[in-house]
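Attaching the record inline, Q. Sequence:
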Amino acid sequence: MCHIRKIINAFVVVGFVLTILGVPQSLAAGNKQNARVLIVTGIDHPAHNWRQTAPVLAEVLGKDPRLQVWTIEDPYFLDSSAIQRYDVIVLHFMPWEQTPPADAARNNLREFVRGGKGLFILHFGCGAFQDWPEFRNLAGRVWDPKARAHDPQGPFRVDITDTDHPITRGMKSFQTEDELYTCLTGDRPIKLLATAKSKVDGKDYPMAFVFEYGKGRVFHSALGHDAKAISNPNVAELFRRGCAWTAGLAAVAETQTQKMATNK
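Structure, as predicted:
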């Protein structure tokens, strides 16, 4: 049976900050105050310990009191129309040497986002649907198994390339310890938010980007190999803001979300 674990359930009024922080009027009109976020996990490459990373990811996102976070350890839950109960789907799985969710899940996910909801893809989620051509458009960039996968895991700098976007506004470039992915491919237009320079080939690679898919929003980050990488304060901030943005909430700094939690 599918196992859903509710991580946090909090409500807070954000009102007037929506317009100020760059949320479109179409989303601000509903005075959206919170969002239901579903982390979909349960299978991955052997090098990715989802049992360790999923709880850390839930904790990181849940520090924004507007985000009500659930985790489901079964990617085949995407087959169900029950995903419509949520505002954001987080793809935190990769069916390595397993059969990926099939047509029902793919149609559900496509219509979920196209209809106006949010999608957050991190790290090897870029390979969640290798045999689904439309996933290239839905993810923006996908894993290319023929490309060099990543630099050796270690420290590198993430450069913020767009300081005007609501997600990265006020953020500065930062150091992290992770896998610097060099394996993403795709050609759909995206808005690049952050890059990192490979120590192997000297090229810049996307670490975070966004785009709109139908009426919905997609935030995709190549970061997040392990629990340490996800809990890096700057990565955590980036993930929280990106998740909130996909939900149509203001992408605010942690200091502001802490004030919200105090004043709720």
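The mean pLDDT is 88. The longest helix spans residues 233-246.

More tomorrow.
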